[in-house]
């Protein structure tokens, strides 16, 4: 119906680069006012907010860890009382998992995936903005409740009956449950965007076997989110219902079951680990080739390993429940499956080592963190295989051995690659290099501090020190090691401090980075740093797995997109053949209002079930405002 | 880097339909999420059943009438739903308008029947875990009917405005129809679970 207009519309054909940049900028750039910032839908802007917010939560969670270490440094310390300590370890765990680790990994995907697949914005950019505001509201909810002394105190997995109506007093457990709803809602939204961006918005020619490994890992992660997160949303909602309107899901007296909670939680909780870990290995597989200047060894096995990890992740959850007394056969099955997950992990490790072996490594900070990751992760994996065996687990369950194990996999397996990723992509995101000298300092402080802090916890656990205790008696043989751990934690924290100082300094005063400072091979390095609002002046056409390593200094591109509306290319799922030009939504404040309305409904529903009814009306109104067509060029078809 | 145009995309349509539309894929992904949630609810149902000495515990099985009528109604609504989708594909504005009005009614009628389904369970949500899970399943599915109903109503209004005659809108209508099919199909295992498993 609008075919006639097609010929008259402005396209990028016959424009020189400067004029094209100018026109694209006019169409894609957001306004710089306050409301312009609220309305932003540029994936890079949203991702930057996500990353900064998540790192603020890392710092806050780190302060809680510091507080715990001060308290535990000596027996019978009086620094924190028992009730506060319960809140603190619950806050630390929930904050780190739900407000830092998962969001920061998804945020990296939101920033990098559209650039790496060669498109101009993420799919459903308004949903993306919405997800950020919802995530922020969930974080604020949790931290305000902590300031008001009503923070959850039931552990990061909030087992019933402790968190149920009988024992969980006040609104503490409800705050935990609703914080979950907030963060999982935002995580699910981002997962949908990633799936559609990867499947439908890849640059022409980027067939499935040419997708960068980071993008593969983010795609698998997004599917794991989609399958796993509904479990915890179901669980947090039923917990609130048990507490508010008297449903009986977790009450054994009325046919409910407390173990149902554990099953549901770990059906989500184990995949959660891979939601954090898969993006991390994707970063490793991307960074490593750059610093040895050769393609990854074994692209196909690595992709297979990523997918296998995602699938196997759903067959392991019972290994968190070995001490509840399961049938023998079930125990053996879950032991076997837990050990089987070592196979895809092993495949990837061998591919990385082979890549390192075959190339000439350049030991810059990102590579140091990657190597630190490989070492630490192998240790964490070994203790993982240990606790996968039922008799051993029965011995160390709920002791500091487990605390040591999961920090090895979480910090070693995810935070190290993340910091490597920050050093690696910071030049792209800000246009400036981070300091190599401070980078080396922060690496050695973090690596040494980390091992000195967490390795002794294995021993404490074997000596029988339970986790989640706010103090211990002087007669116990734990005092010396605890003091040692607390002092080592100071080294670890100073390493993080150096890292944050480096970030702050480099952001304003770092050396200009240029387009491709590491001589990397993937598409995000094909444009200026930081990228313009439209990412690519012209959408690239891909004919190789490492498009920037083809030996030519020309980038093949597609032409013919319009410049008078936000337009990008849709391509087919398998071969990425172009199918359509599609518009990408403009900035809008509606996602912000929708998030506000959603937050009001969710928080209100902690107090009254009627919130679901009345609170949904403003949500519906904001959603209609969001989707109602505005008769602009983006609406043409 | 210097750019070398090798591909001209100016002849491509300004909006993709069906599998060339991101909205279609978004709808499918949402269905995957919702489908996981329904699957989970069924798993919880069976888990609780496996623990109980009798099922349903101390109450008769739910009355079939309201639930079965609703099931028949939902299945029947698939016919106009598929027609609307086809008309949207053919961009027949008049027929799509009528179809959406019909589909709005097809969304309201099951809600009326749903009101009678809750008492037909012979148990309240707070009386036992059995009551909790059947009320939750019914509630969860009702939320889906309501969501799709609102979507249909808004689309129906939209099609009567100047924004209606647009490929993009026809795509929305198709996606909405797809989602309604999902709401209907998802109901079938839930129906079997709530009404027939207790009779086994
Ligand atoms: C920055 C250095 C960190 C230190 C010194 C630290 C220290 C601790 C300590 C001492 C505990 C045990 C508390 C207790 O059982 O009494 C703990 C628990 C925990 N930590 Fe960390 N942690 C750090 C970073 C992280 C990170 C980055 C994550 C996740 C990505 C994380 C996740 C957890 C979780 C999930 C728990 C369990 C909380 C619970 O028992 O409910 N930690 N941490
Ligand atoms: Cu696990």
Tell me the layout of helices and strands:
The complex is a heterodimer of chains A (637) and B (200).
Chain A: H1 3-8, H2 17-28, H3 34-39, H4 43-72, H5 82-117, H6 125-147, H7 172-200, H8 213-244, H9 258-292, H10 299-312, H11 328-340, H12 342-358, H13 365-387, H14 390-396, H15 400-430, H16 436-462, H17 479-509, E1 554-559, E2 567-571, E3 578-583, H18 590-604, H19 611-627
Antiparallel strand pairs in A: 2-3
Chain B: E1 2-8, H1 22-51, H2 65-89, H3 93-117, H4 129-159, H5 167-196
The structure holds protoporphyrin IX containing FE and copper (II) ion.
Summed up, what is this model?
Chain A is mostly helical. Chain A has helices spanning 3-8, 17-28, 34-39, 43-72, 82-117, 125-147, 172-200, 213-244, 258-292, 299-312, 328-340, 342-358, 365-387, 390-396, 400-430, 436-462, 479-509, 590-604, 611-627; strands at residues 554-559, 567-571, 578-583.
Word description of this protein:
- The complex is a heterodimer of chains A (637) and B (200).
- Chain A is mostly helical.
- Chain A has helices spanning 3-8, 17-28, 34-39, 43-72, 82-117, 125-147, 172-200, 213-244, 258-292, 299-312, 328-340, 342-358, 365-387, 390-396, 400-430, 436-462, 479-509, 590-604, 611-627; strands spanning 554-559, 567-571, 578-583.
- Chain A has 19 helices and 3 strands.
- A two-stranded antiparallel ribbon of chain A has the order 2-3.
- Chain B has a single domain (20-50, 64-199), classed as Four Helix Bundle (Hemerythrin (Met), subunit A) (Up-down Bundle), CATH 1.20.120.
- Chain B has helices at residues 22-51, 65-89, 93-117, 129-159, 167-196; one strand at 2-8.
- Chain B has 5 helices and 1 strand, in the order E-H-H-H-H-H.
- With 200 residues, chain B is mainly alpha-helical.
- The model of chain B has no long low-confidence stretch (mean pLDDT 94).
- The structure holds protoporphyrin IX containing FE (HEM) and copper (II) ion.
- Copper (II) ion is lined by residues 270, 273, 316, 319-320 of chain A.
- Residues 270, 273, 316, 319-320 of chain A line the site of copper (II) ion.
């Amino acid at each position: 119906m609008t075919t006639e207009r097609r010929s008259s519309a402005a396209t990028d054909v016959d424009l020189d680069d400067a004029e094209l940049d100018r026109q694209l900028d006019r169409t894609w750039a957001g306004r710089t006012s306050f409301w312009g910032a609220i309305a932003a839908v540029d994936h890079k802007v949203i991702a930057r907010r996500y990353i900064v917010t998540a790192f603020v939560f890392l710092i806050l969670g780190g302060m809680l860890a510091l507080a715990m270490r001060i308290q535990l440094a000596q027996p019978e310390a009086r620094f924190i009382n028992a009730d506060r300590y319960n809140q603190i370890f619950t806050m630390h765990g929930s904050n780190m998992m739900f407000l830092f680790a998962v969001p920061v990994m998804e945020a990296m995907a939101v920033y990098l995936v559209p650039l790496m697949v060669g498109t101009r914005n993420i799919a459903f950019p308004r949903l993306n903005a919405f997800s950020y505001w919802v995530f922020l509201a969930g974080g604020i909810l949790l931290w305000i409740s902590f300031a008001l002394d009503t923070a959850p105190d039931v552990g990061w997995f909030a087992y019933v009956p402790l968190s149920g109506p009988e024992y969980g007093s006040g609104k503490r457990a409800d705050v935990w449950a609703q914080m979950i709803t907030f963060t999982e809602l935002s995580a699910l939204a981002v997962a949908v965007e990633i799936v559609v961006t990867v499947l439908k918005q890849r640059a022409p020619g980027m067939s499935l076997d040419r997708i960068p490994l980071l993008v593969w890992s983010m795609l698998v992660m997004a599917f794991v989110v989609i399958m796993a997160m509904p479990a915890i949303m179901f669980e947090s909602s039923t917990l609130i219902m048990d507490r508010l309107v008297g449903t009986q899901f977790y009450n054994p007296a009325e046919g409910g079951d407390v173990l149902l909670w554990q099953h549901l939680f770990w059906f989500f909780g184990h995949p959660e680990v891979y939601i954090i870990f898969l993006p991390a290995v994707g970063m490793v597989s991307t960074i490593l080739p750059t610093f040895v200047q050769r393609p990854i060894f074994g692209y196909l096995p690595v992709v297979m390993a990523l997918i296998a990890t995602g699938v196997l992740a759903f067959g392991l959850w019972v290994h968190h429940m070995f001490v509840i007394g399961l049938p023998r056969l079930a125990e053996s099955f879950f032991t076997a499956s837990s050990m089987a997950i070592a196979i895809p992990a092993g495949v990837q490790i061998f591919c990385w080592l082979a890549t390192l072996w075959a190339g000439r490594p350049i030991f810059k900070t990102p590579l140091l963190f990657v190597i630190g990751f490989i070492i630490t992760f192998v240790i964490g994996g070994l203790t993982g295989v240990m606790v996968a065996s039922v008799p051993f687990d029965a011995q160390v369950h709920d002791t500091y051995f487990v605390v040591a194990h999961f920090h090895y996999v979480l910090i070693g397996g995810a935070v190290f690659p993340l910091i490597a990723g920050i050093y690696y992509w910071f030049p792209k995101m800000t246009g400036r290099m981070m300091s190599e000298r401070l980078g080396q300092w922060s690496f050695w402080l973090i690596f040494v501090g980390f091992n000195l802090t967490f390795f002794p916890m294995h021993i404490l656990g074997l000596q029988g020190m339970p986790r989640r205790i706010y103090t211990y008696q002087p007669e116990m043989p734990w005092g010396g090691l605890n003091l040692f751990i607390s002092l080592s934690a100071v080294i670890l924290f100073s390493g993080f401090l150096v890292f944050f100082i480096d970030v702050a300094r480099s952001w304003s005063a770092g050396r200009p980075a240029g387009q491709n400072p590491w001589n990397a091979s993937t598409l995000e390095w094909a444009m200026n740093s930081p990228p313009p609002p439209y990412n690519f002046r012209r959408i690239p056409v891909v004919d190789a797995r490492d498009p920037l390593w083809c030996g030519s200094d020309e980038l093949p591109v597609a032409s013919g997109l319009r410049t008078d509306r936000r337009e990008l290319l849709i391509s087919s799922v398998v071969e990425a053949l172009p199918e359509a030009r599609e518009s990408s939504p403009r900035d809008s404040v509606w996602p912000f209002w929708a998030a506000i309305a959603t937050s009001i409904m969710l928080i209100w529903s902690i107090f009254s079930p009627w919130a679901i009814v009345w609170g949904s009306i403003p949500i519906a109104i904001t959603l209609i405002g969001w989707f109602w067509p505005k008769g602009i060029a983006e609406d043409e078809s | 880097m210097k750019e070398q145009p090798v591909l001209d995309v100016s002849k491509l349509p300004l909006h993709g339909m069906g599998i060339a539309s991101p909205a279609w894929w978004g709808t499918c992904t949402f269905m995957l999420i919702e489908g996981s949630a329904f699957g989970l609810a069924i798993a919880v149902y069976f888990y609780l059943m496996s623990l109980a000495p009798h099922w349903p515990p101390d109450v008769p099985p739910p009355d079939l009438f309201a639930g079965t009528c609703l099931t028949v109604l939902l299945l029947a609504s698939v016919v106009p739903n598929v027609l609307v989708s086809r008309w949207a594909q053919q961009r027949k504005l008049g027929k799509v308008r009528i179809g959406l009005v019909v589909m709005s009614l097809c969304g309201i009628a099951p809600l009326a029947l749903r009101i009678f389904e809750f008492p037909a369970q012979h148990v309240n949500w707070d009386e036992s875990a059995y009551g909790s899970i059947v009320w939750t399943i019914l509630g969860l599915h009702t939320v889906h009917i309501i969501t799709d109903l609102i979507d249909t109503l808004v689309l129906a209004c939209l099609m009567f405005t100047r924004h209606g005659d647009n490929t993009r809108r026809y795509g929305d209508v198709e996606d909405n129809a797809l989602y309604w099919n999902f709401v209907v199909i998802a109901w079938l295992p839930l129906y079997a679970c709530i009404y027939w498993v207790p009779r086994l």
